[in-house]
Amino acid sequence: MPRVVSVFFPTLATDRIRRADPSIPAEAPLVIVARSGSKRWLSAVDANAVKLGLHVGMAAAKAQALVQGLHMVDADPAADLAALERLTLWALSQYSPVVATDPPDGIVMDTEGADHLQGGEELMLSGLVNRFRARGLPACAVFADTWGAAFALARSMRAEAKVIPTGKTADAVARLPLSALRLRAETIVGLRTLGFKTVGELAATPRAPLSLRFGPEIGRRLDQMFGRVAEPIDPIRCPEIIEVYRSFAEPIGAAETIGKYISRLVTKLCLELQAKGLGVRRTDLIIHRVDNTIQALRAGTAKPVRDVVWLTKLLHDRVEKIDPGFGIEKLSLAATMVEPLNDRQMVSGLVEAADVDVSSLIDVLGNRGTQRIYRLAPLASDVPERSVHRVSPVAEEDGQTWPTIWPRPVRLMDRPELIEVIALLPDHPPVSFTWRGKRRRVKRADGPERIFGEWWRRTSEWVAVRDYFTVEDETGERYWIYRSGDGVDAETGSHKWFLHGVFA
Questions:
Q1: For the chain, which terminus, N or C, has the lower number of CB atoms within 10 Å?
Q2: Are the C-beta atoms of residues 32 and 24 closer than 8 Å to each other?
Q3: What predicted TM-score, i.e. pTM, was given to this entire model?
Q4: What are the backbone angles phi and psi of residue 295, rounded to the nearest 5°?
Q5: Cα angle at 357 between 352 and 359, to 5 degrees?
């Protein structure tokens, strides 16, 4: 069943103004003023203005009278829409093949066939919100079965992210206000006059009297919210995106037929990429069905490619996931992420060992949803947990080298684990230690290796030190343990012992 993400940006317009005009003080309240004839009202308010009691829809004159020094900027819907389109195009390249703007302050995504590439719905949603917040743009995002439900919940909840389980839409939206239904303002006023307050109350009311008085809009919005009527998402496309498509006079549905036309689309796409000197990193196959619904499949590669055979294989491996329904009327293939790729001369029969390319294996595993494909690379840091980081498996070497003075264990704990140790301070190795309820006697030890804190990061590391020991117990197991502090001065650490790693 398709799953939809709605992302709501409560301060999109005011954040755009602040980025465009850095001279506005961060603590100053900012509002956007819209006008119609002589009427002026607040169309957007920032967090500072909300704290002072201002809200969307308030008369501009009243807001100006209530708050001295209020920054008021005229609304610019075209600029707001352009900013929203930029966010939508970014989400298209990062998260899903089917992404569309949801004006004036949101975007919507159909994640079918793409959420597994982000580690599942929970990880995808939290990562999405965190990336927007890191760029100074607050966002609320909801996973739900339908566009209408996700839209309503994203604009009604206080949490930044929420996943509504499949089939739980009715329970989730029952207590939402009528404004969440995307109805006209006069319709909402009329419903409130009749005593309706929530979506659940409206949904439980016979449809005929409501349609007779307000028209079919209420029934249509309710059916869209509960999934009784399809609400397709028309994906955004920019002029720079290379896209090829094939329409069918008669709908197709057989897997062999779908695979045949996918091969033809890949060939056509690669010819256009070659003409522009580009290679594709991410391709999106959009399936338009006759019931006015869309399905999408995404395939990514570790390096830019335009190999017809390889791209065809990546897409053919996922043909079984396509549900043709009552038939497919159109297939489109888009290169949503491209990079320069120049042809190079290959000498037959001369293949160096260093030229072995594993990117094809990475592509296969990555498109199956394997998220933990990475390579470890060293960083310039003496602190063990900071001396390594994850990089792309095909990333180029950056010149950093691994430390060679003291041996390092092959496995580091996610967090150092507290242990009980018998040792003579300040510099003697442990005689024994207890880890995870088991006491181990130390037969051999090497150390201490003193590691100082990185004082430029935070004040707590100005005088902090760790003394590391490599120890071997009576069974031959080797561990990497350390004492927090120098064993003399309490300011250098707590003098507690921790196990940080295990040797092979």
A1: C
A2: no
A3: 0.69
A4: -125, 150
A5: 175
